[in-house]
Amino acid sequence: MVALTLHPDRLLPTDPGVRGIARRLYEAVRDRPIISPHGHVDPRLLRDDPPFTDPTSLFIQPDHYVTRLLHAAGVPLETLGVGSPPLPEDRARAAWRSLCEHWDAFRGTPVRYWFDSELVEIFGVTERPGAANADALYDLIADQLRQPGNRPRALLRRFRIEFLATTDDPADDLAAHRALRADPDVGTTVAPTFRPDRYLEVGRPDWSEQVAALGGDVGDYAGYLAALRERRRYFVAHGAVSADHGHADAGTEPLDRHEAERIYRSARAGTVSPAAATAFRRHMTFEMARMSCDDGLVMTLHPGICRNHHGPTAARFGPDSGHDIPTAVEFTRALRPLLERFGTHPGFHLVLFTVDADVYSREIGPLAGFYPAVYAGAPWWFLDSPAEIRHYQSAVTEIAGFSRLSGFIDDTRAFCSIPARHDMSRRLDAGFLAGLVAAHRLAEDEAHDTICALVSDQPRKVFKVPGQAG
Amino acid sequence: MVALTLHPDRLLPTDPGVRGIARRLYEAVRDRPIISPHGHVDPRLLRDDPPFTDPTSLFIQPDHYVTRLLHAAGVPLETLGVGSPPLPEDRARAAWRSLCEHWDAFRGTPVRYWFDSELVEIFGVTERPGAANADALYDLIADQLRQPGNRPRALLRRFRIEFLATTDDPADDLAAHRALRADPDVGTTVAPTFRPDRYLEVGRPDWSEQVAALGGDVGDYAGYLAALRERRRYFVAHGAVSADHGHADAGTEPLDRHEAERIYRSARAGTVSPAAATAFRRHMTFEMARMSCDDGLVMTLHPGICRNHHGPTAARFGPDSGHDIPTAVEFTRALRPLLERFGTHPGFHLVLFTVDADVYSREIGPLAGFYPAVYAGAPWWFLDSPAEIRHYQSAVTEIAGFSRLSGFIDDTRAFCSIPARHDMSRRLDAGFLAGLVAAHRLAEDEAHDTICALVSDQPRKVFKVPGQAG
Amino acid sequence: MVALTLHPDRLLPTDPGVRGIARRLYEAVRDRPIISPHGHVDPRLLRDDPPFTDPTSLFIQPDHYVTRLLHAAGVPLETLGVGSPPLPEDRARAAWRSLCEHWDAFRGTPVRYWFDSELVEIFGVTERPGAANADALYDLIADQLRQPGNRPRALLRRFRIEFLATTDDPADDLAAHRALRADPDVGTTVAPTFRPDRYLEVGRPDWSEQVAALGGDVGDYAGYLAALRERRRYFVAHGAVSADHGHADAGTEPLDRHEAERIYRSARAGTVSPAAATAFRRHMTFEMARMSCDDGLVMTLHPGICRNHHGPTAARFGPDSGHDIPTAVEFTRALRPLLERFGTHPGFHLVLFTVDADVYSREIGPLAGFYPAVYAGAPWWFLDSPAEIRHYQSAVTEIAGFSRLSGFIDDTRAFCSIPARHDMSRRLDAGFLAGLVAAHRLAEDEAHDTICALVSDQPRKVFKVPGQAG
């Protein structure tokens, strides 16, 4: 067996001079509470607080970061229980064994980094996973999961999560959120996020059915707008701070009223063309920005993903099964209509995420460096790794400074990875700022002030998180 | 108050071994005269040599690098006097106070780096700007500006600027340049640059009016070509070394003569279509290269900017008000017609600038690594920062070597930032070359030779600057 | 004269702590045999084993990496003997002198790095080339080339090349390969590679002529498919492990049978339109993947090159004369049809190469991180340099891990550069892994295991190289 330990200086710069500065900066924020303004934790998990049943349903099944690499290594998604409820113990054990046997497939990835942190810090694992100890580790973790201290709410406290946003369907009744807010036992502010994609993409086969779920009279375009406005109001009343958009592109060209009504009617009739559906969705992105100016919801955009790239896998295992693949993205021209209209609107916030790293210096930095509304979203999804985060840090801050950054978001479905992800970000912030101090571009007191802002004040400000700055 | 100082090792590598090499290389070029073959200093400033009136009109109003970040931070451009003549003192003070209060917005940016250098080296500032000392700093600098030693020409001498190119309208009579060249008191060679964009973009609403200012008989296409040729000749006679192009794309497809004439006629008649105007502009870029082969003007191209992104701001504050935003750019196919015809023409120089960093290794390096005419322009505008310059250094030189680089250009409207910008470039060159030496890829004598070439000989050669190599 | 030496730590990290780790990792693989699964050595060179005639025909004439930079520096390609047989001695000497006189044009490039290695390690050169010693070096190398120990086969042994793939025309009779395989004196496994580009691009003017050379009845589409299938079978029988594709884009949209037949007929009739030819080529890329699923040939794709950019040079000096220029490339949508059909086919391997570095993190990493068939090809052509290799290492492994990499390929026409290129890759692998160890992201035993895999097991596995892992 090989020992598994976490080095206190992990991810910090290796140059001893720079590392010393980085240690001091990291120290200043290491124990700060977590602000998580965008993620995918299920609020019912926190409301119902059931014990996690087994390591596989906790670490593998819901996390496409893990299953996609095992799939690439030849493990069938079925073996891993993708898209299934928790597996019976023999199958859960077999899936866990697959993970341990393919531990080397994760070398160099952030998934491995988070895994190491979670195993050591949450579950007290002391051995590197492998074929030989897979069953023993399964037993150890399964045993830990039966402890009350490892139930979801207890972990939420232990993780020091101050604010946690979930991602929710506009038609959701938000009952789980209501219960959580009413429960004095929950110290974390858990907020819903308005995610209207499927209601705006009128060419989807299930759109007519979906849109009926919004409530209100959606028989015509005016009623549809009113229904969306009402659902946003409902979300705001339940604590939502943002609305999240993940369309194929960042287009925001508005239509004139008659054209929008015409397309809406054809969508209702099931006769909308793909081109018209795209035009309508871009128009609605513009309209959503207008609503944000009215109701204050922060608007987040993360375009440029080809969803469900492998049709046969999507058909069998559903969405989010590991083959959403990025494409090139364009913001400058696509956002122009929206920004000409709302880019200087007081209080409007638009956070831009990308999985096409080219646009950090080419488009996002320049946009965030002029428009008061625009913030550069933290590296997201495929880019949430040390090298890409370092690229983002320099590419965006050299153009737009630190005050135009969104602060870190974890965007995760893997509940136990939340602290490790935020800790990684803090270490990388400390390292980057230490580099600026060591190059005599920034004084250490400024770096200290900046890292505190990045961890606490900036995400609060950008996402309008209620409560006081730390 | 916190002290403001400049560390002698700023921007040099932090590894002690590499830093030692970098110090020696930097030392070799630190005090060399400045060659500035592309920039935006107003030649009348140097001819008339008026004292600068106040810190705001010097540092803030003309510099969109500064005003865009303050605008993003919520300061209205009107407060900053964008697009205005020098402000009355109370407003100038208020603008300066805004800058000092938002000093943290510039952390990590090159603007901050240049500011620090200018405040310390030119004006002897010893305190970090902030809300508390804003007025005192205003007074201190305003007082300095009244000293004869801080008038434009005195600064020009102090900055050791040997060659300075301005950017000029083809219809300009170049009277200021004539006066400067005739004045034995001016040690710097000040040269105009031919910037014909607006005369080539025949779809612009003011084109017909503009083109008449060229002089000559521009009633037909032949006369138009002749007028442009004559204005270039005039510029050459006044010391111009280059012609600068900043169109939306890098297209260079020529038209046949009849088609060019036809479009020209429709432009004169005010009936040209956008597509025809674009085709004509690409054709004219080809024709400008042909003229460069004849008259020797170096051709510089910097496509890929969406100008005046925020219409309402442009309408109120004019162009260059901080919201020109980059877009993806393509050189390989776009330049092919021009390069097939002129890419090996003896003495033709084409310098390619980009704000889309992707093309450094993908297109610019490969083009500059084959065509004798093509040089890789130094990182420009949004990319004139340490990390992006380092990216350029490795991306281009690993493909095309050092001898295909343009040498540094400052491209600035901020007169006082010229020495800080060139010094930053020299430090980064020293650091990059030191890295090659430390990795045993280059001997130190070669690195020494290379940095001297980059600072002095290379820009002289690429831009055909008159005078002897140092 | 300045000494030319190779430092044992060249290319390793400069931080002393990291360097120590890197040295140990490099030591573990330094002397391992070379697996070269993609390159451009002529098999007849190895079959006939003639002495190399002179330094120019060895180092300059066949290597467009060298000639393009000399051309950019102003040396005519004719002087360098591009596209010619070996030059008479006076011209060969003059070409060599040009190289030595322009030695500084190669500073900072990998070509310079490989040159240094080859001169010192193979030919015992001890002086830096330059104008003064050009003739002496020519004589020294020419003399060495007359030694039996420097004939192609002797070098093959000295370079410890265990497996070497060449690149071959599908119509080639592979006589040279047959002879090599039959010769017990040849310890290296030399394998052909099936390179069908010109047979799939039905719009090429010489296509009809070419396709006849395939043999079989290519009068109709079915016969054409059968002929290609038969030639692949023939290549497999002669040891081929892969089929290599270098089209303008990565499109793989299949046509229905009738449409394919129709286009094929029009191609035979010489009336195919460019659009139809492109559609057919994309269809055939799909069909080639289908054949790979049947016959096991690994499929390699390297799209995104604008071939023969400078027409006049191509007309005079032929293809591969230094002006193939990259363009932006897209894989996500282009490969979707192929991957939906074959991306999970057992045993199908698809290796993606790019000269557009943007796609490493945006497309190649995500694709290789899901599809068992997809591997991320090593940095290729313009990107085979230290900084770009480092970018690839972090961009791909943080998304897809090390086990999705192809392992190094040298892709070279410069026979003597093979060991220097592989050694460079090993040093960079050691440096990258040492950085992960120093950042406490990987244990040193894992890094050791990983570098051994990258050098030996991974290329064997990905390219299905016969023989045992080391």
Write the layout of secondary structure elements.
The structure is a homotrimer of 470-residue chains.
Chain A: H1 16-29, E1 34-36, H2 43-48, H3 55-59, H4 64-72, H5 89-101, H6 110-121, H7 134-145, H8 152-158, E2 161-165, H9 175-182, E3 189-191, H10 197-200, H11 207-212, H12 221-237, E4 242-245, H13 257-268, H14 274-295, E5 298-301, E6 305-306, H15 311-317, E7 325-326, H16 336-342, E8 350-352, H17 359-368, E9 374-376, H18 386-400, H19 418-438, H20 444-462
Parallel strand pairs in A: 1-2, 2-3, 4-5, 5-8, 8-9
Antiparallel strand pairs in A: 6-7
Helix pairs in contact in A: 1-19, 1-20, 6-19, 13-14, 17-18, 18-19, 19-20
Using the coordinates shown, work out and report the CATH topology of the largest domain in chain A.
TIM Barrel
Summarize the main sheet of chain A.
4 strands, parallel
| CATH homologous superfamily heading of the largest domain in chain A | Metal-dependent hydrolases
Number of domains of chain A: 2
Pathway (chains A, B, C): Carbohydrate metabolism; pentose and glucuronate interconversion
EC number (chains A, B, C): 5.3.1.12
Protein name (chains A, B, C): Uronate isomerase
Catalytic activity (chains A, B, C): D-glucuronate = D-fructuronate
Question: Could you explain the architecture of this structure?
Answer:
The structure is a homotrimer of 470-residue chains. Chain A folds into 2 domains: 51-150, uronate isomerase, domain 2, chain A (Orthogonal Bundle); 162-462, TIM Barrel (Alpha-Beta Barrel), CATH 3.20.20. The first copy, chain A, has helices at residues 16-29, 43-48, 55-59, 64-72, 89-101, 110-121, 134-145, 152-158, 175-182, 197-200, 207-212, 221-237, 257-268, 274-295, 311-317, 336-342, 359-368, 386-400, 418-438, 444-462, and strands at residues 34-36, 161-165, 189-191, 242-245, 298-301, 305-306, 325-326, 350-352, 374-376. In chain A, helix 1 crosses helix 19 (418-438), helix 1 (16-29) packs across helix 20 (444-462) and helix 17 (359-368) packs across helix 18. Chain A is 48% helix and 6% strand. In chain A, helix 9 (175-182) links the parallel strand 2 and strand 3 (189-191). In chain A, the strands form 3 sheets. In chain A, strands 4-5-8-9 form a 4-stranded parallel beta sheet, covered by helices on one side. In chain A, strands 1-2-3 form a 3-stranded parallel beta sheet. Chain A is of the alpha/beta class and 470 residues long. The first copy, chain A, is globular, with a radius of gyration of 22 Å. Chains in contact: A-B, A-C, B-C. Chains A and B meet through helix 16, helix 17, helix 18, helix 19 and helix 20 of A and helix 4, helix 6, helix 15, strand 7 and helix 18 of B. Chains A, B, C: Its EC number is 5.3.1.12. Chains A, B, C: It comes from Micromonospora zhanjiangensis. Chains A, B, C: Pathway: Carbohydrate metabolism; pentose and glucuronate interconversion. Chains A, B, C: This is Uronate isomerase. Chains A, B, C: GO terms for molecular function: glucuronate isomerase activity.
